[in-house]
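Exam revision sheet. Question 4 asks you to relate a sequence to its structure. Input first:
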Amino acid sequence: MTRWLLALLTALSLTGCGYNDFQRLDEESKAAWSEVLNQYQRRADLVPNIVATVKGESTFEQETLTKVVEARAKATSIQVTPETLNNPEAFKKFQAAQGELGGALSRLMAVSESYPNLKSNQGFSDLRVQLEGTENRITVARNRFIKTVQEYNVMVRSLPSNFTAMAMGYKTKPEFAVENEATIAKPPVVDFNKK
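Answer key, C-alpha cells:
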C-alpha cells in the first residue's frame, strides 16, 4: 500500500513541475529553428543564380558582387546543430554571418537599380522576386522562433517551473538580436532636395 501511495504522491508532485511543458517547448523551438534554417538555405541557394545573372552585366561593380559571394561562403560554412540553440556564442556567430549575407544582398539589389539592362532582364527580375519572398519567409520563421523561445524562457524563469529547470539543467535559450541596435534606433535621413 505504501508503494502505491508513494507512486501517487510522486505523480501528483510531477504534474505541476512543468517537465512535459519543457519538453514540448523545447521541441517547438527546435522545429521553429529548423524552419529558420530552411529559409536561410533557400536564400543561400538563390545567391549563385543571382550572381551568375549579374555577372552577365559586364560593367557591374565587382566589389559588390565579391562581397555577396564571400558573405554566402561565410554564412554557409558555419555548421549549425540543434545544440546551437543552447550556445549563445555559436548562435551569435551564425546570426552575424546571416546578417552579413542579408546586408550584402541588399546592397547588391540597391546597386542593381543603376543598371538598366539588368533591371530589364526577366531572369534577374524573377530572382529578385524570389529573394524578396524568401526574405519575407525568413522574417516569419524568425518571428515564430522568437515566440517559442520566449515561451520557453518564461517557463525557465517562472515559479514553480524554475525549480524543475534548475533540477533538470534547463537554461534560457538565446534570442535573435539586432547586431547594432543604436544604428536602427535612428530614423533614416530623407532629403528630397538632393538630385
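Marking note for examiners. The chain is about 75% helix and 0% strand.
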